[in-house]
Write a structure and sequence with these properties.
With 357 residues, the protein is α+β, with helices and mostly antiparallel strands. The chain has helices at 8-29, 38-55, 58-65, 73-105, 111-116, 119-190, 192-212, 220-238, 263-274, 304-310, 315-327, and strands at 218-219, 242-248, 256-257, 281-290, 293-303, 332-340, 343-353.
């Protein structure tokens, strides 16, 4: 269906435009030597312009049938010239019939003969208007094609981003599960009770991940609770070697954050910081609100040699990629190492927009 007719507002604007054309033709016909008065000229041009407005709608279907990019120039010119000539001739013939009807129904003396003198003006106006309709419809088709291509590109971009986020999340979950199962395997012979407790804690943690991980955003309080559940699992394995400090500003607990955004970072703190150290250490989690942003700090000690050997894993890289895809540059992750002889402190700071809805 013609795009002008599918929208009531567009149709109304289109008809107003043709009403303006009727007024313009009335002004042209009145002093043309035909002897037509303004009322007589308008009585003919108004209904005829409204009729021609719908005749010109055929130009849209013609333009769709003969695309500019797929049609030879001679065929394009010949087809549209024939269509314009036929439409203008039909319009002029119908206007003559309408003038005869007006002459018989309304006391417009000898309106028909006087109107015929304006025939060339009406015929060439019809040609010009149909050509303009062709140009307008080609522009409209080009614009709609551009809009469809742009919308398709945006849809593909969104799908690609969603696929990348799903892939990143799929990398995080197996990575954590692999490490947890290895820890349980190591405890089975050395401390069966601890292995059973770790299985229970792991089941609770995974249940929380399934419940909250399917959402796009969760409360920061829920995200920190998931991170603490993970640390509880690691406490079973590491015992007194692991301690946790928590300092959370209650003002930012309702900020919405991506689920499982902290878990890879606390896992990184344990795997590459606390676990290789004989005397262990403290993982510190801090969250504060600064204006419209929330800052989350995760800090842990590390041994220089063990860190160099084990590397930093995939956790920080995955978090950075997720922040880039989800926040388009409005969020960031900063990593800092403070090294003193063989030991140091590893700090990861997230800064996210605090959105509570």
């Amino acid at each position: 269906m013609n795009p002008i007719l599918i929208n009531r507002t567009r149709t109304l604007v289109y008809l107003v435009l043709w009403l303006s054309i009727a007024v313009l033709l009335t002004v042209i016909l009145t002093p043309s030597g035909t002897g037509l008065s303004p009322i007589e000229a308008f009585a003919i041009t108004l209904p005829m312009c409204l009729l021609y407005a719908f005749i010109c709608q055929a130009a849209w279907y013609l333009c769709k049938a003969i695309p500019l990019s797929e049609s030879a120039l001679p065929r394009l010119v010949a087809t549209h010239a024939a269509a314009a000539f036929t439409s203008a001739a039909l319009w002029y013939a119908l206007s003559l019939a309408w003038a005869s009807v007006l002459e018989a129904a309304v006391p417009f003396e000898s309106l028909g003969p006087r109107y015929r003198a304006a025939g060339p003006i009406l015929f060439f106006a019809g040609l010009l208007l149909f050509v303009l309709a062709i140009v307008f419809n080609y522009l409209l088709i080009t614009f709609e094609s551009s809009q469809r291509a742009e919308n398709k590109a945006l849809e593909l971009q969104v799908l690609a981003r969603e696929a990348e986020l799903r892939a990143l999340r799929a990398q995080i979950d197996p990575h954590f599960l692999f490490n947890s199962l290895n820890s349980i395997n190591a405890l089975i012979m050395a401390d069966p009770a601890a292995a059973r407790r770790m299985c229970v804690l792991l089941a609770d943690f995974l249940r929380g991940c399934l419940k909250l991980g399917s959402e796009d955003r969760i409360r920061l309080a829920e995200e920190i609770h998931l991170a603490e559940n993970y640390l509880d699992i690691e406490k079973v394995r590491l015992g007194s070697r692991l301690t946790v400090e928590r300092s959370i500003d209650t003002q930012c607990e309702n900020c919405r954050v991506p689920p499982l955004i902290l878990q890879p970072l606390v896992e990184n703190a344990i795997t590459h910081g606390i676990a290789p150290m004989l005397d262990g250490g403290t993982v510190r989690i801090e969250a504060r609100q600064y204006g419209s942003n929330v800052k989350i700090l995760i800090e842990n000690p590390f041994e220089r040699e063990s860190c160099r050997t084990n590397g930093t894993g995939v956790g920080i890289r995955n978090v950075r990629m997720r922040l880039t895809n989800l926040f388009n540059g409005d969020a960031r992750i900063d990593v800092k190492e403070d090294v003193n002889e063989n030991r140091g402190r590893f700090r990861v700071e997230l800064q996210l927009p605090c959105i509570e809805s």
